[in-house]
Write a structure and sequence with these properties.
By secondary structure, the protein is an alpha+beta fold. Helices cover 49% and strands 13% of the residues.
């Protein structure tokens, strides 16, 4: 089955069931010919114990938290979802959502996940990095460009960013902190979306 035949809805449903990345879900669905159960098997083989079939346990509860900088010029709204209202009301969950909101205010991510980065933006950066490495031998030029692209993604993608309060959070990325909370609560925890407002922008 071609990847173009796999709908975004199918990919999202598989992601909700497994917690795997969007691109991994799309590849697994393509490889399995659209068979969801086979796709879950493929993901589990590739990712080992990090992938869990959460079945119909959809993250449909959650919380919207806000952060407003003391000067009143930067504000953030973030939606973090989980599976039950019980978890959504816990201190751990609320604190996590607020920590994410304050991080977004300071770090100004442009996208939530790497798969949300438009192909044009990614390709434009890739071209720049390839030009920067043009004087290097061909065999390492590609590796240098790939490394720089990964570094760029870690700067502009929320889930790949190290929390701005690195000491408090032991240098963990937002994705790692999200996974820690998911493991602690036993529920699917997802940062669904965010909006960052800056006066004059």
């Amino acid at each position: 089955m071609s990847s173009s035949a796999i709908s975004a809805g199918d990919v999202k449903a598989l992601r909700d069931r497994t917690g795997a990345g969007m691109m991994d879900c799309k590849k697994a669905l393509t490889e399995s010919g659209g068979d969801v159960e086979k796709a879950i098997e493929i993901l589990r083989v590739k990712a080992g114990k990090r992938i869990e079939d959460r079945g119909e346990r959809v993250a449909s509860e959650g919380s919207v938290q806000a952060y407003l900088h003391h000067n009143g010029k930067v504000g953030v709204l973030v939606e973090v979802d989980c599976e039950t209202d019980f978890v959504a009301r816990t201190d751990d969950f609320t604190v996590f959502a607020r920590e994410v909101a304050s991080h977004i205010a300071a770090a100004a991510p442009r996208w939530l996940a790497a798969e949300d980065v438009p192909a044009e933006a990614r390709e434009a950066e890739q071209r720049i990095f390839e030009q920067e490495a043009a004087d290097k031998p061909p065999d390492i030029r590609e590796k240098i460009a790939a490394g720089k692209l990964q570094k760029w993604l870690s700067e502009v993608v929320l889930l790949e960013q190290v929390h701005v309060n690195a000491d408090k959070h032991e240098g963990k990325t937002i994705r790692e902190l999200q996974n820690v909370l998911a493991a602690k609560t036993g529920e699917n925890v997802l940062i669904r979306r965010f909006a960052r407002f800056v006066v004059g922008e």
